[in-house]
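pasting for the record
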Amino acid sequence: MSAWAGVATAETPETKTTDAPVSAPAISSERTTFLEGFAASLARERDYYRAISVWKELRFGAPDPRDRVRYSLSITHAYRASQRYASALSASPHVLQSEVATPAERAEAELLSGESYLGLKIPFQAEVHLAKGLELSAPCSELAARAELMLGVARAEAGDWPRARAYFLRVQNGKSSLAPVGTDFAAQALKAPDMPQRSPLAAAVLSGLLPGAGQAYTGHWVDAAQAFFFVGAFAFASFLAYSYEHEGGRPLVLTTISLSLTGIFHISNIIGAERTARYYNQHQRDIYAGGIRDRALALP
């Protein structure tokens, strides 16, 4: 018999298995205090990635669920501050789904989620979280003022400047530290209707009269040149086809085909001009509202 017979089935402390869950080793209070200060220092220096790693270590070793909520909120803040908006959205549920999170912590997590959606340029989804954050915030608090400011930004992104200005004025008239920002944003919202715009109807009419003129009106010079060339080329081809078939007494088959193609290109030219005007207007709104959004997201 082999000398190794029976060894494989022998139970030793090293080979025993257990189904009991593995718990995280507790971190001493002294080390917890040190790591919390270290993470906060890293965040102040904008070394967010290392700060997040430290907070994750603290969360993993925290026996108290309230501490885990606090660390999760710090992680969400760091992701949001580092513009890793998708990561912030994946971190905030650790707070929002916790049974021990306070209303203030939930409000802050909702606000961070809303700001992250703004950073991802999804204003309608941002409004849902910002409205919840405002509802959970204490009245007249800094958190409530920030929620109202960001709701105004979301409305500006959607092109609803009157409601955006109403939110900014509420921040302006409050007593928070964001009042000067609300004043500035309210003034910008008031000037929003004065941003450069192009009439889609005028663009369509111009291109109907002269192919490419509507595109030129909106500053799309390449599109204007293409429209003028294609419609002009097919119109000239139609003239040549008609001259050839008419002088020879032939059926106007080529003329009909070329005129049909000319009409298709001309209608496409008119539709394209109307769309370029709409695109121009949307682009101007995006630039204007984007400036407000970027300034809002840059707030500490």
